[in-house]
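Continuing the batch. This is chain 6 of the set; chains 1 through 5 are on the previous pages. Same settings as before, nothing changed between runs. Recording input and output for traceability.
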Amino acid sequence: MMRDQATGIVYLVGAGPGEPDLLTLRGAACLSRADLVLHDYLVNPLVLRHADAAAEIVCLGRPHGGRSVPQAEVNQRMIEAARAGRTVVRLKCGDPAVFGRGAEETETLTAAGIAFEVIPGVTAASALFSHAGIPITHRAAASAVALVTGHQANGTCGPPLDYERFGNFPGTLVFYMGTTSARQWSEALVRGGRSPDTPVAVVRRVSWPDQQVFHATLGTVAELVEREQIRPPTLIVVGEAVELGPGETAGRRDEAAVADGVPRAEGAEG
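Output for chain 6:
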């Protein structure tokens, strides 16, 4: 949208899955010029080091154990700040377009006549291979991938998501926000034709230093989540490609192997 010089602008910036170095250069540049940063609670605080020291930085709260700022209030704060001539960064986990309410916010900004730009980020599913050694595509096992929500918002238009229909999906399924509903969707996939022996990986806090990876099958994943008391945020990967990657340590950073300030993956040459 064209910018009216009398008003500010809103940048919807993807912060990536957690590892601060996965922020894009464009995202860092937008943060450096922001007057106001509205960030999700899961954004790594180290990403905020790119913001100007004078910027107002607001965490939008925790959905569990604290106040979470309603979406309508977030929208209003962006609009009011932009109308006051401020540069706003709405900093989101992962990518704004992947279960990040980016489309909802751009629709609101468009209706209000506010200029905006969307800055893509590394979505968590893209970081699975580099940080957990789990590919979501593989020539021998998965030529398609579907990103699926395990939790639909109240008031979603249309019928509820029919997980059973994904039972015959010819590739990898990656569930976002699927921890608490694991029993619901896993049993539905089996009813839809997916083998209960299908490999499954549950990755908690992908790319963070305390990342955890759990392995199960489609028939046992719900039991695993309950037994280990696995809590969000997680990604749950379903498909044969789960077992075909190099393993969890393949893409993890070796903090001792740093040359010219650029961290190398374990086993990297040079």
